[in-house]
Amino acid sequence: MANIVIINPRFEISFWGMEHCIGLLGKRANLPVACLALLAALVPDHHDVTLIDENVEDIDFDRLGAADLVCVTGMSIQGRRMREIVEEVKARGVMTAVGGPMATVEPEQLAGLPDVLFIGEADETWPQFLHEWENGTHKSRYEQAEKTDMAQLPLPRVDLLKADRYMFGSMQISRGCPFTCEFCDIIVTFGRRPRLKRSEQVLAELESFCRAGLKIVFVVDDNLIGNKKAIKLVLRDIVAWQQERAYPLTLFTEASLDLAEDDELMELMGLANFQSVFIGIETPNEDSLRETKKLQNVRPNAGTLLERVHRIQNKGIDVWCGMIVGFDHD
User: Comparing 3-143 with 168-323, is the CATH topology the same?
Assistant: First the structure.
């Protein structure tokens, strides 16, 4: 049995951090990154796995010195701290592995630092590495050849999180986005073909949040409605689950503006208790939208940006608008 530790480094101050209010609510962070609990679920049962989220607890590097393997995940905004953690752990002679969004889109920033580097999705390569590591045949770099079949993912180990320190839970229903916005790295990380979990998986995760005592869940999909036909089937099952249990969970998510063009989809999201949605509006300048291939925001028959936002609001869903300043046409 090996002692495996998986770490999410602290975030720098950002929009999503909600640093202005978490203290008022007696919490340490807004939400756990969804991959922590999933990575733990992919570790074979004969290993001991510990999750550390530096956003809700301090890292005891001396205790990490007793681990057999320390793994660090993170986004670009966490890059500086990722490197610091890996350097501290390596100084104690412990094997290190790094993966996640930053490792995927900026692998050169981590070159030569960890003992093992994961590029892209790692739902298959992470268990593969663990098996090879046990047998002394592991490689220093893993890059998953195919996108993950979301329908085969295990139930994330929410039970290993310190759930009472977070404002929200977090879960991922789908990966991928069909659009080609040139400033976005989602299609680089997850591809353009949206892939979804089965309803049974989604409902099991919702149940796990209830057991953990959480009341609000952020569905962290970068575009929940990338495959509208498929997500409608899942939403209908979420609606039934919520209604049977007197609506124990409030949900929010991210989606593209073409949500406003589908009344049925908006109604299903409302019935499923999605109370807000983050949408990339980016700019009212249509030349800038066309320049950056944000073409779903400039459909002439869909109405103005404001009309579409109002259409979503009229269905009872709050809209958080993401904006970008500094396009060539601004």
Answer: no
Asked whether 208 and 248 are in contact (CB, 8 A), the reply is no
In 220-286, beta strands by DSSP E: 250-255, 274-282
Look up residue 295 and give its two tokens. Answer: 């073409």
Among 260, 324, 2, residue whose Cα is nearest residue 136: 2
CATH code for the part of the protein at 3-143: 3.40.50.280
> Cα–Cα distance between 281 and 312 in angstroms, integer?
13
Indicate if the pLDDT at residue 17 is higher than 80: no
pLDDT tens per residue across span 217-267:
999 999 999 999 999 999 999 999 999 999 999 999 999 999 999 999 999
Q: Are 10 and 72 in contact (CB under 8 A)?
A: no
pTM comes to 0.95
d(CA 17, CA 56): 12
Q: How far apart are CA 257 and CA 330, in angstroms?
A: 21
Token reading at 135: 């047998």
Among 303, 324, 289, residue whose Cα is nearest residue 181: 289
> What is the strand order of the sheet 216-219 is part of?
169-171, 216-219, 250-255, 274-282, 318-323
- The domains of the chain are located at 3-143, 168-323
In the CATH scheme, what architecture does the domain 168-323 have?
Alpha-Beta Barrel (3.20)
Strands of 228-317 (E only): list them.
Answer: 250-255, 274-282
